[in-house]
Design brief:
This is SACA1 protein. With 183 residues, this protein is of the alpha+beta class. The chain has 3 domains: 10-48, no CATH class; 51-131, Immunoglobulin-like; 132-182. Helices cover 27% and strands 37% of the residues. The chain has one helix at residues 133-181, and strands at 9-12, 21-30, 39-47, 51-54, 59-60, 64-68, 79-85, 92-93, 100-104, 110-118, 121-130. The strands form 3 sheets. A 5-stranded mixed sheet has the order 4-11-10-7-8, with no helix packed on it. A 3-stranded antiparallel sheet has the order 1-2-3, with no helix packed on it. Strand 10 (110-118) and strand 11 (121-130) form a beta hairpin. The longest helix is centred in the last third of the chain and has 49 residues, at 133-181. It is flat. The N and C termini lie far apart (82 Å).
């Protein structure tokens, strides 16, 4: 065990998150067993600012999107409040109270916000922009054009490198033949 005659000094590790709720290690910096300079004595929750800004969906297809709230296990200990944000209007609270929400795209873009609550207090908030079906098709077409443009550039570089390599090899062969003939 720990030596009781040695004074104990505690250091807190970094929080695993920059917003919302996460965990951190509590380290002992004096009085560890053996020759250890530091040892973990426990892991505890830590909190960052409530506003986590804009999130990235965990799954995004052309038809539907899955968006997670901010939480740590066990996720059933928190309450989740999903809101649909409407410009210049009061947010519409949705009946979904799960940590992950799936939303199938509609014609126009929609903004969602999830508030993670514990004992009536908001501990994390994250927003998501779900683009409409027309915008997704436009983005997909743009990605295809960008991919084709990139492919053409890559092909041109490859042709240039191969041609340069062939010219260098032919030059080296002629140089070797010239050196052998004049030996």
């Amino acid at each position: 065990g720990l030596n009781a005659s040695v004074s104990m000094e505690v250091e807190f590790g970094m929080c695993t998150v920059t917003c919302g709720i996460g965990i951190r290690e509590v380290l002992l910096t004096r009085g560890c067993p053996g020759t250890e300079a530091k040892c973990v004595i426990r892991v505890e929750e830590c909190r960052g600012p409530v506003d986590c800004g804009w999130g990235t969906p965990i799954s995004e297809g052309l038809a539907c999107v899955k968006m997670p709230c901010i939480y740590i296990p066990p996720k059933n200990r928190f309450k989740y409040v999903w809101k649909m944000i409407i410009l210049n209007k009061t947010a519409h609270i949705l009946p979904n109270d799960s940590a992950i929400m799936e939303f199938c795209r509609v014609t126009r873009s929609v903004t969602f916000q999830c508030e993670t609550q514990e004992n009536g207090n908001i501990i994390a908030s994250v927003k998501y922009m779900v683009y409409g079906t027309a915008e997704m098709q436009t983005k997909k077409a743009g990605r295809i054009e960008a991919g084709q443009s990139r492919r053409m550039t890559t092909d041109a570089i490859l042709v240039f490198c191969v041609a340069t390599g062939i010219i260098v090899i032919i030059g080296v062969i002629f140089a070797m033949i010239f050196m052998i003939l004049h030996w």
